[in-house]
UniProtKB/TrEMBL annotation, chains A, B:
Transmembrane segments: none annotated. This is Helix-turn-helix domain-containing protein. Residues 5-73 form the HTH merR-type domain. SMART domains: HTH_MERR. It holds the Pfam family MerR_1. It comes from Actinoallomurus oryzae.
DNA sequence: CTGCGACTTGAAGTGCGATTCAAGTCAAGG
DNA sequence: CCTTGACTTGAATCGCACTTCAAGTCGCAG
């Protein structure tokens, strides 16, 4: 009846992450096993929620270190909340850029210029404000 | 009067990229100098457009190798056009994810749960489809 | 001609996010 | 008890996008 715990292989499979990645995240403080079964890490099922969050944040461009900081955030941490607001604004810009990029690509898939660089429509999609290329 | 050409330092400054990055891009086939002044590369001004395009694409998550392929695309390259369409679709997903992330962050900046992971609103923002985390 | 300083080169180094590897440990089954 | 096979570990390696470095080369002012 105490089979509430998942072992690492199960978590890996369900989360879509490699076991090595789980150990990597653990080292970085993003997750922690509930205990061990012999040498094997065992996790509470809610680690899956956490991992979904991590994956999403990763794919949104956050570093593992940043995510670690977010995960320990408390309501009193105004400093971190400010950083989050900043991040939200950055995401806003990213979204705008990606949207332009998507439109440009869509057009490129059908336009008839010799090379993309010669296509004025395509160029327009990218001649935005001089971005310093963060990432 | 033939001062239409910019030298590498000028291009670096105007594009916001390091000279080393320009040389790197050259090695990867993304840009080419118009000529040399002694050892110094000189560029036609339109290299700046190209670099803006490169920077934008980079920040949209394309690898330098991909960008190189896009830049030499011709209308007949249906294969590449298909890849572009695929990319456009991927961007669509990225945009959706980033949008959720942004909303989650905005909420997080003001909600009052002990840790973010405990905030149901925040969780909801990320409990999307099990993303395999490309990037 | 000489020296300065800004460029040139290829090779090595950096940071991030993992993955891969060799060697070790464990529980369970024969 | 001994094998099997899935896990464990830390260390090494990888890929990407650059940056940094040592050593060399150039144009030009003096």
């Amino acid at each position: 009846m105490s089979e509430a715990l998942l072992d690492i292989a199960e978590v890996a499979e369900r989360s879509g992450l490699a076991p090595s990645a789980l150990r990597f995240y653990e080292k970085k403080g993003l997750i922690a096993p509930a205990g061990r079964n012999g040498l094997r890490r065992t996790y509470r099922p809610d680690v899956l929620d956490r991992l979904a969050l991590v994956s999403c944040a990763r794919s949104a461009g956050f570093t593992v270190a940043e995510i670690g900081r977010f995960l320990v955030a408390t309501p009193g941490d105004t400093d971190l909340r400010a950083r989050m607001a900043v991040k939200a604004r950055e995401l806003e810009e990213d979204i705008a850029r990606l949207t332009r990029m998507r439109d440009g690509l869509r057009h490129a898939a059908t336009c008839a210029h010799e090379t993309l660089v010669e296509c004025p429509d395509f160029k327009r999609a990218f001649a935005g404000p001089p971005q310093p290329v963060p990432r």
